Amino acid sequence: MKKAILRNIAIVSALFIVTFSIMLITNYFQVRDTTPLQTEVVETLKQLNDANNTNLALQEQIRQLDLLARKAYFVRLDHLMAGVYILLGMLVVFIVSARFYFAKDKNIPVKTIDPVDEWVDKTQARKYVVWVASGMTAVALVFVLLSSPYLTTKEKTSKDGAAETNPQETALVAEESAVPEAGADTLQTAAEEAVSEVAASKVTHNSFRGNNSNGISAAKGVPVKWNLSSGTHIAWKQSIPRKGFNSPVINGNKVFFSGADDQARELYCYDLNTGEKLWSLAAVNIKGSPKQMPKTTKDTGLAASSVATNGKQVCAIFATGDIICADMDGKQLWAKNLGAPSNHYGYASSLLAFGNEVFVQYDNQNSPKVVALDMATGTERWSKSRTEKITWSSPVIAYVNNKPQLVLMGNPAITAYDPNNGKQLWRVECLSGEVGSSACSANGIVFGASEYAKLVAINATDGSVLWESNDYLPEVSSPVATKDNLYLATSYGVVASFDTKTGQTGKVHELNTEFYSSPVIAEGKVYLFSNDGKMFVFSADKEFRLLDSFETGEHTFATPAFTDNKIVVRTENSIYCVTAN
Amino acid sequence: MAQNRFPKPDFESGYKYPEIHHAIPNEELLVAIDIILLVALMGIVSWAVIKKRTRGPILWVSVISVAYFGFFRKGCVCSIGSVQNVALALTDNTYALPLSVLLFFILPVLFAFLFGRVFCAGVCPFGALQELVNIKNYKLPKALTTVLGMMPWFYLIFALLYAVTRSSFIICRFDPFIGIFRLGGDIGMITCGVILLIMAMFTGRPFCRFFCPYGALLSIFSSVSIWKIKLTDKPCINCELCHNACPVDAIRPPYANKAKESRLRGVKRLLNYFVLLPLLILCGAFLMRSVSSELSRANKEVRLYDMVMQHEANPGDVLSLELEAFYGQGDSIEGLTQRYEKVQADFKLYTTIAGALMGLVVAITLIGLSVKRTRKQYEIDHAACVGCARCFSYCPQYKIGNESGNIAL
């Protein structure tokens, strides 16, 4: 009778332990993935507070939410620990009841009846060892195969559109398919609405065509319509001090661009919110700088290259070969001359900021090269000579299997380098003529196109050509791509889309105008300026529908810069900021 | 304490946080007690198993060890984890190895070389805890335990790999009993500990036999120990009782070597395995080197590098705490890349060595399983024996000369 009770207690406690363990493990994984202080609502409200830290009610609201999140987290944790104590208690119950149950016979050794021959055991064990070793080998091989870059790329480029891995396009797809949730939490809605009032955004546009110079912006609340003459949705407009075809860049509340003429070459910084000129820095007293300005054509000029910033420094380069770099307050950090570039139109390659380095594509007639300079000191990190002819294209960063590649277009090749040391990763000879357009990338594929040459899609894992097309080719404007579609604008007015996997031409718009500015994708839309200042907005999907088009009234050759709720546009004579509000 | 791990709200409110004071224990005194107790307990166990052949003191040592090294000192420092510190100190001269950790590593090894695995018997709180909860011993198939016996070696190799690459001390991180001793911690590991304890109730010391990397190391020294544990000084009468009583299957039965296999075939097999030995070493080295990149993801520099690269690819994303720290401290991508490449190079080297060692373990196991040896009576396998002293009280020959011997508890 007593033994039966002990047995039943042991069974019940064992069942309890198993059930409770499963529940605790489930709860544990739920709690482990919780990041209580990084909820979307709190982050949004913090952004609001960053913009305006005088709103006491908002700060109180953040405190309350913060406290609530912490409390909720620790209460769950306490429950979890209470569960652990109960589990341990039940374990003690189980051990005690089982010990008493076996008390009488626990000291009687179990005698092996009909013992198995040791050699049979060993033979069996040898089999098991071989199985285990084979299993481990198989697991290792599976890991080797799964981590193979070739396999990864194949997966990514599979026709059925397997899981998207490139974060850029993930964000884009999310934007394309985003549907507002009905009946969402009112607090969240309020926060989202309030976000649109935030002046300074963490979304930067650090180089020509955005970060990595890839033509894709993560900006939210981007304006879709404005009227420059009536001032509708125009936050500010300023005349540019000196001419230049370079494009503006944005970091925080600062807009940077450059201008130059025979008198001076200058880097400018304007306030993103007010349009006020914060500072300018002239490229003067630079050792090796040519005394005579190089001859440039009217449509290139001395400041065709866009500036680049990393949020700590900002650098500008001019057709003289002078490169200057300042901190965010306009204090010159260093300046040097890279040797006057021999270029019959004028040097035009834009700078590209990447971490603490700035890349300079210096494909001129004398000594074509690509150089990486430390943005803080100007120290040359690495330099690689190139065999290309004069190029007006700009460097871009392509992410392939989450690793960066520095991709340069040139005549005759598109070449990828390791941005950390300049080591050449691959090279595809596919271009000719005067190359002015820059590359773009998506999903591990690099796309390059140039007029009188071809459009090429390259598997950036190994540099193999996936497909080519000759249908529509850009002259100055650079293409932009999502996972599925590539978009480009030609100098003869055709804007076309292509299937990124097959190269098949998709929707084509004949717009009877000229495009030098490059398309930029933001919030699932393609924004594109024509030279005569007409803004075209397309849907960034397979349909590539023309959603809207409107005249702005000023010739525009530069590519606009995007941040949350704002677009900064440089025209022939002015720079202005479009706001969603 | 956990609350302090959360960042304080990141704007000024005027509220002044109170200063946090922690009572600092007299760590030097405690460390001295640790060492003295470690030596004293191992001395008691050595005396009990070598001289007195009795289990009683070992059980008391187990209770003291679980109470002091386990619940009071919360399982740290432990000799099992000290392997990693020593390995790191040997490969990285910037790492200062504390003397107490060195002693915790070296003393059980020294005792194993002198008296066998007396540390495992009851001084190790992990072994002691399993011993105390043991209710009944169901024997596992010998073939299965042989294969599982390779696991501690693999665990040791991985622990050393991650230690010398400064990635993680996996023995500490995946310690199944630490959560029980500390009454809290990683719930996953606590659950593993509970499962192991339940297993330990019905089979002898599953953690010691199938997981413990330090036990694997001690088994080498124990097998060549100077004073070996003996069941009895009298002739064995082959009664089989000790064999059946051993919870860790460390007593080998007599074997007449009458396998119906031709001698030539056995020799051929053995020769084949000797030929296979270098191949297995090379194969292991190659495979592990091939997956070094995947294995390196356990290193924080590699994880940070991946996170930074992902962020650079999509700068619009909200910064994680790690990225905020990276950018906030003004760390450079170039510096991070250099560190990342150094870690990758280290992993290439050490995974190659680790793979070779794993191949060696498999090859030696296979060779060991191909050797036939005649035994006329029951013998203790000193590499596997943990000195729990259960067998003594079952030996009729020992009882004849020691009628007052303790009955197994």
Label this structure with key terms.
heterodimer; A: 581 residues; alpha+beta; Methylamine Dehydrogenase, Chain H; 3 domains; 4-stranded antiparallel β-sheet; B: mainly alpha; 2 domains; two-stranded antiparallel sheet; disordered C terminus
In words, what does this structure look like?
The complex is a heterodimer of chains A (581) and B (409). With 581 residues, chain A is of the alpha+beta class. In chain A, 25% of the residues lie in helices and 29% in strands. Chain A has three domains: 2-101; 116-147; 211-579, YVTN repeat-like/Quinoprotein amine dehydrogenase (Methylamine Dehydrogenase, Chain H), CATH 2.130.10.10. Chain A has helices spanning 2-32, 40-51, 56-101, 118-146, 149-157, 167-177, 186-195; strands at residues 216-217, 234-239, 249-251, 254-260, 265-271, 277-282, 308-309, 313-317, 322-327, 332-337, 352-354, 357-362, 369-374, 380-385, 396-400, 403-409, 413-417, 424-429, 440-442, 445-449, 455-459, 464-469, 480-481, 485-489, 494-499, 505-510, 520-522, 525-529, 534-539, 546-551, 561-563, 566-570, 574-579. The longest helix of chain A is centred in the first third of the chain and has 46 residues, at 56-101. Chain B is an all-alpha fold. Chain B folds into two domains: 30-254 and 379-401, no CATH class; 263-368, no CATH class. In chain B, helix 1 (27-52) runs parallel beside helix 4, helix 3 crosses helix 4 (99-115) and helix 6 crosses helix 11 (187-202). At the A-B interface, helix 1, helix 2, helix 3, helix 4 and helix 6 of A face helix 7, helix 11, helix 14, helix 15 and helix 17 of B.
